[in-house]
UniProtKB/TrEMBL annotation:
It comes from Microvirga arsenatis. HAMAP family: PurN. This is Phosphoribosylglycinamide formyltransferase. Pfam families: Formyl_trans_N. Its EC number is 2.1.2.2. The active site is at H111. Keywords: Purine biosynthesis, Transferase. Gene3D superfamilies: Formyl transferase, N-terminal domain. The gene is purN. (6R)-10-formyltetrahydrofolate binds at R67, N109. InterPro entries: Formyl_transf_N, Formyl_transf_N_sf, GART. It catalyses: N(1)-(5-phospho-beta-D-ribosyl)glycinamide + (6R)-10-formyltetrahydrofolate = N(2)-formyl-N(1)-(5-phospho-beta-D-ribosyl)glycinamide + (6S)-5,6,7,8-tetrahydrofolate + H(+). N(1)-(5-phospho-beta-D-ribosyl)glycinamide binds at G14, S15, N16.
């Protein structure tokens, strides 16, 4: 089995990063976490990655005069480590169209909502304000438009009476930690691939399952 070399881009503590690193420890996982890169030299996740024996790199965006020069340095580091796929995991920088197109079909992100609902920030607050009964998270390919890329995988959780942003976020993050490794496995083993602007799947799945809220 050929393991694809993956870089995880972070800006903070690296919660989803940790779940990807743990999943990649399995001998049958088709990805190797080869690099953790942050735009913040003080990001807590860099130390966590070092402790796991993974190469790290800090490229401070504040040290560059514009986004283009920052992204050239970012791209150079990724190529130096022979990266095949990028996972964004709390990477708090908006990437330019040029960079996104360069990594088209090879860069994915996880977002805390059931896209296309609630793109952008404050997703849990907006879900509660709208009174939805189902919320969740999405892994998608990255495209120039924010949170608009083709969907690879989703996980749903019920929204229950008395939920706060914090309680709902805590339930969603559990599913993020399960979903992201699953989606990375799918793109690295060829189960899911970007084809003509949509995700093509190499296998089917059980269509009988459903989440009911309230159940």
């Amino acid at each position: 089995m050929t393991r694809r070399r993956v870089a995880i881009l972070i800006s903070g503590r690296g919660s989803n990063m940790a779940s990807l690193i743990e999943a990649a420890r399995a001998v049958d996982f088709p990805a190797e976490i080869a690099l953790v890169l942050s735009n913040r030299p003080d990001a807590e996740g860099l130390e966590r990655a070092k402790e796991a024996g993974i190469a790290t790199c800090a490229i401070d965006h504040k040290a560059f005069p514009d986004r283009e020069s920052f992204e050239r340095a970012l791209d150079a580091a990724l190529r130096e480590h022979d990266i095949a796929f990028i996972c964004l995991a709390g990477f708090m920088r908006v990437l330019t169209e040029r960079f996104v197109e360069r990594w088209s079909g090879r860069m994915v992100n996880i977002h805390p909502s059931l896209l296309p609902l609630y793109r952008g920030t404050q997703t849990h607050r907006r879900a509660l304000a709208d009174g939805v009964l189902v919320h969740g998270c999405t892994v998608h390919f990255v495209v120039p438009e924010l949170d608009a890329g083709p969907i690879i995988a989703q996980a749903a959780v019920p929204v229950v009476p008395g939920d706060t942003e914090e309680s709902l976020a805590a339930r969603v993050i559990v599913q993020e930690h399960r979903l992201y490794p699953q989606a990375l496995r799918m793109i690295c083993d060829g189960t899911a691939r970007l084809e003509d602007g949509r995700v093509a799947f190499a296998r089917g799945w059980d269509a009988g399952a459903a989440l009911h809220s309230p159940n």
